[in-house]
TrEMBL record:
Acts both as a biotin--[acetyl-CoA-carboxylase] ligase and a biotin-operon repressor. In the presence of ATP, BirA activates biotin to form the BirA-biotinyl-5'-adenylate (BirA-bio-5'-AMP or holoBirA) complex. HoloBirA can either transfer the biotinyl moiety to the biotin carboxyl carrier protein (BCCP) subunit of acetyl-CoA carboxylase, or bind to the biotin operator site and inhibit transcription of the operon. Belongs to the biotin--protein ligase family. Residues 18-37 bind DNA. The lineage of its organism: Bacteria, Pseudomonadati, Pseudomonadota, Gammaproteobacteria, Pseudomonadales. One of its GO terms (cellular component) is cytoplasm. InterPro entries: aa-tRNA-synth_II/BPL/LPL, ArsR-like_HTH, Bifunct_BirA, Biotin_CoA_COase_ligase, BPL_C, BPL_LPL_catalytic, HTH_11, Transcriptional_repressor_C. Coiled coil: none annotated. GO terms for biological process: regulation of DNA-templated transcription. Signal peptide: none annotated. Its EC number is 6.3.4.15. Keywords: ATP-binding, Biotin, DNA-binding, Ligase, Nucleotide-binding, Repressor, Transcription, Transcription regulation. Biotin binds at S90, T91, N92, Q112, R116, G117, R118, K183. This is Bifunctional ligase/repressor BirA.
């Protein structure tokens, strides 16, 4: 049996039982199952619905836990506890609830009812469109060892997106993701509680507009991956697997050597480099000068380079 025959039967994106597929293709149910497994391993988004059958999901771009797990290396798969939900208040909040029972909880949800952004903002989280991903990370060292972590995560997420396709992903300090001058994603890092056995519990939440069509409650200009790079097939399962892989690799590197080793990689993506900037409170004006070794943004002023430690910077 050719896999194409199987995929063309599935292409109506209805649910097909193994029995009906076997009958139509003139093969055994075991042969169907083997071809489904092979197609999934080759990257085709096929959902297995227990007791019902199989469904081709890529055009709908449905989130599917098994597909994501299938795209992870065994070493990553074994480290994480992956939860994929239809709806949740916030994936960061869900990870916070799971942190006590799971060593490395990773939560994805198809939508969020109270998605949160930086500085107390709301994060628009409509259903079926975007990626809402959070990881509960245990970072070795004290709180000071966290300097620059969120920037290192920005590098990891940008790498994961570029591996799928599209074009260059830019970073706006501290950790907004930009494409061709517009924001399509952000990272919210929240520190959880006390130091535990020399580790700090950190929740890293990543929001990426993938197929965002409209958002009434967004208070800043935005774009989405499929608007910026419409020729690319953006598959949320693939993006999620890539981000989980890149983030865990970045955390290992960060724990071993701190932010310093990410500095160059971050600066290559800096959308503000050389541009006239002003801090949010309007107090400091200068030209974008990149970041220092702990992740502060450097403003070049007449008095020299001044590090900005927190807050937002914008174009003058
Ligand atoms: C920003 O303000 O730019 C950061 C946005 C972070 C949004 C993500 S979506 C997944 C996770 N859950 C949340 O409630 N927020 C983060």
């Amino acid at each position: 049996m050719k896999s194409n025959a199987l995929l063309s039967l599935l292409s109506d994106r209805e649910i097909h039982s193994g029995e009906s597929l076997a009958h139509k293709l003139g093969v055994s149910r075991t042969a169907v199952w083997k071809h489904i497994r092979k197609a999934i391993a080759d990257g085709t988004d096929i959902r297995t619905i227990r007791g019902q059958g199989y469904q081709l999901v890529s055009a709908l771009d449905l989130l599917d836990r098994d597909i994501i797990l299938g795209q992870l290396n065994a070493s990553v798969r074994e480290r994480i506890q992956l939860t994929v939900l239809d709806e949740v208040d916030s994936t960061n909040a869900e990870v916070a609830r799971l942190l006590t029972s799971a060593p490395l909880p990773v939560v994805l949800s198809d939508c969020q009812t109270s998605g949160r952004g930086r500085r107390g903002r709301n994060w628009a989280s409509p259903k079926d469109q975007n990626l809402y991903l959070s990881l509960g990370l245990s970072i070795k060292g004290g709180f000071s060892a966290l300097d620059g972590l969120s920037l290192a995560l920005g590098v990891a997420v940008a790498n994961a997106i570029e591996q799928v396709g599209g074009g260059e992903v830019g970073l706006k300090w501290p950790n907004d993701l930009f494409a061709q001058g517009q924001k399509f994603g952000g990272i919210l890092v929240e520190i959880q509680g006390e130091l535990q056995e020399g580790c700090v519990q950190v929740i890293a939440g990543i929001g990426i507009n993938v197929h965002m069509t409209q958002a009434e409650d967004v208070d800043q200009p935005w774009t989405s991956l499929d608007k910026r790079w419409p020729d690319q097939a953006w598959v949320r399962n693939q993006l999620a697997a890539g981000m989980i892989t890149q983030i865990l690799a970045a955390v290992t590197e960060f724990e071993a050597g701190g932010f310093r080793q990410f500095r160059e990689r971050w600066q290559r993506r800096d959308i503000f480099s050389g541009l006239p900037l002003v801090t949010r409170d309007g107090e400091l004006k200068g030209v974008g000068g990149g970041i220092d070794e702990t992740g502060n943004y450097l403003l070049k002023t007449a008095e020299g380079e001044i590090p900005v430690r927190a807050g937002d910077i914008s174009l003058r």
